[in-house]
Structures are given as C-alpha cells and as structure tokens.
Amino acid sequence: MDITSARDFLGEVISKHPFPENAYEAVYLQKHMKRYKDSCDLIAANCPVDQPLLSAGCEPGHIEMLLKQFYGFTNVSGLSYRTSDEFIARMAVFGIPILQCDLENDPIPCKDGQFSSIVFLETMEHMFNGVPFALKEMRRAVSGEGCMVLSTPNLAQLRNRWKLLKGKSVNWPLHGTKNFFGQPVHLRHNREYTVKELDYLLQQAGFQTVSRRYRDYSPRVLMRFFNSLYPTFKGIMFFVARPMSGQT
Predict the structure, then answer these.
(1) CA 87, CA 103: separation in Å to the nearest integer?
(2) Which class for 82: exposed (0-12), middle (13-18), buried (19 or more C-beta within 10 A)?
(3) Rounded to whole angstroms, how far apart are CA atoms 76 and 96?
(4) SS3 190
(5) Prediction pTM value
(6) pLDDT reported for residue 54
(7) Torsion sign, CA atoms 90, 86, 23, 120
C-alpha cells in the first residue's frame, strides 16, 4: 500500500462521508498513516483475505476500508460501541457491516468461531474494567485455527521511562489540551500495558502469542538511537496471537 495513495483515498472518504463524532479525522490522518500501513501489512501477512474478519473497536473505519481497498479483503465486519447513522452509512458504501456492542460488558453479537480473524488495534488502552472479558469474547468469536492482530501503546517505552526519571507522570495529562477528565473515553488512554502484561492477558483469554514487534512513528533523534539498540523501548506494540491448542 502506497501511503500517499491511501491518505488521498481516506481524505476523499472523509470529505464525502463525514460524521459529527469524528471532526478530528483529517488531523489524525496526518499523524498515523505509517502506523496504518504497518497494521494493514501485518494483518495481510497473517489473516486470510477471503475469510471473515472482525475489527473490534473499528470507528472511524480507516483500517477496515484500507483492507478492502488496497489489500483485497472481501469479508470485513466492524464492531463499535457507537454506531451513528452517518458512520453506518459510510461503512455501507464499502460493504462493511457494523455490529454495535459495548465490548467491555456485552457479548459480541455473533456465533462461536464465526470469524477467521480478529483485529484489535489501538483500542484496549481506552478501556476500563472489561479488558479480560473483551479478550475472552474475542477468543469465543474467532475460530480455533484463527488469528488475532493487536496493537497498543507500550507503557515501558523509552519516552515514559524518561518522564519518570524527571518526576513526571506517564499517565494521560490532567490539564491542558489532553485533559483526562475532560475527554470522552475514545479520545483518552485509561490504561496502557507492558509486553508481559499483554502476554498475561492474552494467555488468560485463551490466546498464545505467536509474534511481537515494536514500532515508533515520531521519536526524537536520541530516542531513535536508543530504540534501535533496544526495540522494546519503542512506543507501539504489535502482537499476533492464535487460540491455544486444545481450546475451542
């Protein structure tokens, strides 16, 4: 996928099919296209393009549209706790049905093993108490031979370690433009995780980690140097996981 072409494509989608809850989309695109490409490349390398794929926490639908437009995925569904008419209409243009579900509290509205792949990108850091429940539901929804691709910020990234050394918090700010208590849940990080914590959560839900990779998209020069020596210092973790053998 060419990043410029993908950005132009999504920019046109935003222009033609806006919806009120996502006025920040255009700015978001300028910052996250490289992560989008890495996400889509990883999904395409691990998930069959002709089998049912569910993207949990899919709003605003960028990844899902890219998978269909540039990677040839034919059976993509999305899941979101918010499903405005405008968002559903946008996704319908690309043949992507949207399921509504509060993933922290409610079962995914699907049959056991209905999906060959589960995509769970940049979502769990926004969640509260229901992360273990959500992961177990995703394990139920994916087939025994299926695959999960997950990404989330790395709590142990170098930037956070440096902040702690300076006596600063690594949590979402309590004041300024990112005012934690003044932001809706989808625009703030409630809790981030380390690699060991994520391995533990996946294992408890019935998944086995197959591979991990770490990426940074806007590090400073010094951070980039240290990150090249210690990849686990990078800001984003990507996991590929599969159901544990013997579990259905």
Answers:
(1) 18
(2) middle
(3) 6
(4) coil
(5) 0.93
(6) 98
(7) negative
